[in-house]
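tool_call: predict_structure(chain=1)
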Amino acid sequence: MQPRSLDEARRLYPTLGFALYAYTPGGAVTLEVHDAGQVFAWTAETEARAWEVAFPIDEPPPEIDELAAAHSASPAVSDPSQDADFVELPEIEADEPAPSAPPSVFD
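tool_result:
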């Protein structure tokens, strides 16, 4: 289920933080989702549209029988290098660790 209000979002996703604001009178609305120090933001012309963009309504999931039929119809590949789309990438070693995110007002 996709939330369409702050109360719904808090109920459906209790481990996430949310911010919803419109600083400019008559201006855009911003919806932020906070997850373990990361912030994802969507801006739209209305609150309803911000929820729709952040949590789009997807197509209904396929039925289990459809998934089983699709799985049995696809050939099994035991060696990924035999797959026509397989590309082996070289291993990369990092020279130094990635920098940590700077502190924010939410820390």
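agent: Residues 1 and 67 are 21 Å apart (CA to CA). Proceeding to next step.
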